[in-house]
Every structure is written in C-alpha cells, then in structure tokens.
Automatic annotation (TrEMBL):
Source species of the chain: Polaribacter haliotis
Listed name of the protein: Alkaline phosphatase family protein
Tree of life domain: Bacteria
GO MF annotation list: hydrolase activity
Length: 300
C-alpha cells in the first residue's frame, strides 16, 4: 500500500499547482539606467532575472519614437510603437490610438479585475479611453503613496493585474544626473520593490495565487544622467525583469555583451513592446491578430 503514496502525493501537488490563480504585477520604474542599478546593493532587485532591452522604436522606420516617458509608457502598456499608438510626446493633450492591456484583459474576460496606479498622472490620461475599464486607478502623488496603495490592493483585493508607476529615480536624474543622489533614489526604489514583493508573496502563500512580477523602465538617460529623448544607445537602453524564468529568447540576452551600435541593441535585446504579450500569455488570454502587437511573449 505504501508504494502508492508517492503517486498520490504527486497527483495532489499537481492538482494544487494547476488550480493556482494567475496574477500579474507590473512595476514601472521611470528613468532607471541598468548600468547604474548594477553599482548599488539592491537585495530586492536582485530577486529578479533582469535583461537589457530597448525603447524608442526601430531606428529609421515609422516606428521610431522619442525616448521620452509619454510615448514609452504608452508603448509598454499597448505593446505597439508610435506608428500605431500615435503618442509623440509627454503632452497629455493626446490620446492613444491603440488599445491598452487594460482593454485586452477586460474585454477578454470581464471578471478579471485590474488597477492602474500612476505617480505620473499623464500615463492614465494618455490612455483615458481605456481607464473606464479599470477597476481602480489613481493619478499623481508620491512614490511611497503609490506603493502603499498597490500593496493594500494586492493584499486586500488580490486583483488579476496591477500596474504601478514609480517616478522618483527619474526626478533624481533630471535634478542631479548620475551620482550619489541618483544612487540613493535607487536604494529607496529597492525598498518599495521589497514591499510590493512581500504583498505578492502574501497572496501566493495564503490565497493559492501565483504572481508574475515584471519590472520595466521607460527609457535610459544621456551619458551624464540628466536627460533623455534622443536616439542614443544609452537613452534607448532599458531593462525588463521577471521574478520567474523567461523563455529561450529572454534567457539568451547577454547583459555583459558590449553594444556598439543602435542596430545591435535592437537585434540583441528585448523590445519594450514585449511586456503586454507577456502579461496576456501569463493570464491565459489569447492574443488576437487585430491587436497588431509588435512583439512576442517573454515566457512560454
């Protein structure tokens, strides 16, 4: 009789695993340069598998866009470049011509619950056509407040998809460039990442959920860390981090390989447009051709 116990245990474990609810937390970190992140001790960032990526569309094509926050965050949340979403600057007097991940999720399964917590209010304004589909949203405020709201929502409500945008690193860059104050802002960001991770771990442990956590930044910075917007290698360099193993494409990216040209960056790293299909894949939402997403998922 005892020889059948291991099989029973395997079946029970398999059943529990299969019944876990899938949830996604997307943490948008404004203006964080990957190379500067590597200079600071960040125990919570270190829990992620982080790979270099690129923003700004493809150089010399209709998809090329300025490496500014407005077009970049809309790309992150729609999965397409500017030739589709039509956002060309940070001005809130624009509206995305493309649907966002919030729309894809809700129209695919109206029972799924979402939240968009944006320290920089323009993100939600640029996507305002889809905001009526979001179950909870905030615009503006401070990073600590946005983090607390996200933690409370995750711990108390679960939700299926939560986007939280954090802005302090970008502010430090614009004010001081790279250096001590920029590094301190990264340390503070690491604390907030820790709070968010604890919230997802609480749900995993107590509610049989399985949270995919994605980190992404919108743009890199110029050589001194003050500005961005142009098509330079450093300004186009971003990163995507996963708390789970990625697929072969994701894992194949070599962060240590020196990039000598923008074309190399675009061919050898992860496009910013890969975030949306990754979210949809994890939530088991079929990706439709009419969405015209510009990349494939980073997970199998």
């Amino acid at each position: 009789m005892l020889k059948y116990i291991p099989l029973i245990l395997i079946l029970l474990i398999t059943k529990i695993t299969l019944s876990q609810k899938k949830n996604v937390l997307l943490v948008g970190i404004d203006g964080l340069q990957l190379e500067e992140l590597a200079k600071v001790k960040t125990p919570n960032f270190d829990k992620f598998n982080i790979k270099k990526g690129f923003n700004g569309g493809l150089l010399g094509t209709d998809s090329q866009q300025v490496t500014s926050s407005g077009p970049s965050w809309v790309t992150v949340l729609t999965g397409v470049w500017t030739d589709n979403h039509k956002i060309t600057s940070n001005s809130s007097n624009q509206v995305s011509a493309s649907k966002s991940v919030f729309n894809f999720i809700k129209t695919s399964n109206s029972k799924l619950k979402t939240a968009s917590i944006s320290t920089w209010k323009n993100i939600n304004l640029l996507l305002y056509k889809d905001m009526y589909l979001v179950d909870f949203s905030t615009q503006g405020g401070l990073d600590d407040n946005s983090t607390k709201i996200a933690v409370d929502l995750i711990e108390g409500k679960g939700l299926d998809f939560v986007f939280v945008h954090l802005d302090d690193v970008d502010h430090a860059g614009h004010a001081h460039g790279f250096g001590e104050k920029y590094s301190k802002s990264i340390l503070k960001m690491d604390e907030n990442i820790g709070y968010l991770l604890k919230a997802t771990e609480h749900r995993n442990k107590n509610f049989n959920e399985d949270w995919l956590v994605i980190l992404v930044t919108d743009h890199g910075r110029d050589s001194k860390g003050f500005g961005h917007g142009n098509q330079t290698i450093s300004e186009k360099s971003i990163f995507v981090g996963l708390n789970k193993k990625g697929n072969s494409f994701f894992e194949s990216v070599n962060n240590d390989k020196k990039i000598n040209a923008i074309q190399e960056l675009e061919k050898q790293t992860i496009p910013q447009t890969a975030v949306v299909p990754t979210i949809l894949k994890y939530l088991n939402i079929p990706i439709k051709k009419e969405w015209k997403l510009d990349a494939k998922p980073l997970i199998d």
